[in-house]
Amino acid sequence: MAKTLEVLPDPVSLIESMRAIGYTPETALADLIDNSISAGASTVQIEYDGTGEPFVAVLDDGLGMNAAELTSAMRHGSRNPVDARSAQDLGRFGLGLKTASLSQCRRLTVVSKQQDKVYARCWDLEVVHEENRWVVVVPGVRECRKLPLYDALLDQDSGTLVIWQSLDRLMSGSPDPAAEMTAKMAALHGHLSFVFHRYTRREGGSSPVTITVNGLPLNSIDPFLKDSDFTQPLEGQTIRIGGEVIGVQPYVLPHMNHLTPDEAESAGGREGLRSSQGFYVYRNRRLVIWGTWFRLVPKEEFFKLTRVQVDIPNSLDHLWSLDIKKSAAYPPDIIRNRLRDLIPHFAGTSRRTVTYPGRKQRHPVGYEPLWERIEPSHGAFRYQLNPDHAVIRGLADSLDAPAQKALQHILELAAAALPLESIYSDMCGDRRTEPNDGYAETASLAARIMEVTGLSLTTVLSLDPVARFPQYHEQIRKELD
């Protein structure tokens, strides 16, 4: 048997190096919320203050920990990542509490209450430097009473309180700590509302978790806009790997004109719809990675309304190359190949069906488009006004031959002058057309067409553009019939 030597890591060097893993304040706090949810918490409070002695605190009402459990939780690598876990466990490496917290601060205190007993442990990097050992401090009751939200923890039956102090990374040596704290936390509420949106709403048999940031509850930012009447859920799929099930549920989002400003922000945000298309991977309902096709296909304008919800269990973490921050995951070949096969089914619905050489684009039976897309040859196209549209045809029939010829020239001129490049630029930028009153404008347009043409209401409702708003048709019938 070969001779072995035990090589212990230097405490000061390693713990300082681990602070540079790459957490942001919002991803670090998301890791702490993972622990709270895994502990069965129904409420999680995040409080921060940059005045006085700046701090960040996270309080939950979960199961809490006894003395031995708390000491173990403060150990780096407290859990083996290959060990089997509860199906609801959001943890993985046994590092999140420590690496996430110490990436932002130099003093991490954890106080936990269980069965009317309170226990506290503290990682203080100054003490580690002095001792040059992996030692945690055991704060006394007098020290704990000075901690923010400590009294709130005592009022609960159980729970855990995490405190960040000596915020060297978070404050970055700013001469105005309060302003720096506000700036660093600006993205926190939105990020957590997005990542935990399935936890802040009731889903299946799971009760919602109330998460607040300085007293403000998280919104539920759903990237699939499932509450919208215009969102199209497609047929779901399942992928089975070694007895485990990966759920795949695609959605096609509404056109921008059917979205409110808040919905448009949820769907694309600052990155835009084009950048936000693709797979949204959830690990136990917690969003891990989003807005990517995993390089299986390029991001295209035609697919920008396509979102695919992928649910993976924590038992397959090793296959997805989940990182420590739980902010990145990449599927193995066996899953990528299945997803690649499914992409045409998902993305095809976001394209409008087109037929080739010289044939007009198909439309629903009875629908009369005002504009028609013509493909004289594969790869080429143009748009022209539809001379068979009831309004145009009615006008032409009322004119004599010279006037009809003039009308034809005007239609051709309008088609030739259609600013396709400008329209494409606006649509790629996810810009909305000029907002209107919706129903009122559609009903007014229908009434004007009836008045000018003498067409029946049934015919008018099948005409473009009135036919684009079927949600208003019943009300229009009641008003105009």
- Given the helix and strand composition, which structural class is it? alpha+beta
Count the helices. How many? 19
> How many domains make up the 3D coordinates?
3
Percent of residues in β-strands: 15-25%
Q: Quote the distance from N terminus to C terminus.
A: 95 Å
- The dominant shape is elongated
What's the Cα radius of gyration?
30 Å
Assign the CATH class of the largest domain.
Alpha Beta
* SS elements, strand count: 15
Strand adjacency order, main sheet: 4-3-5-2-1-6-7
Superfamily at the CATH H level of the largest domain?
Answer: Histidine kinase-like ATPase, C-terminal domain
The CATH topology of the largest domain is given as Heat Shock Protein 90
Mean pLDDT across all amino acids: 82
Determine the fraction of residues in helical runs and give it as a percent range.
Answer: 25-40%
Any guess at the CATH architecture of the largest domain?
2-Layer Sandwich
- Low-confidence stretches are 80-85, 352-362
Largest sheet: 7 strands, mixed
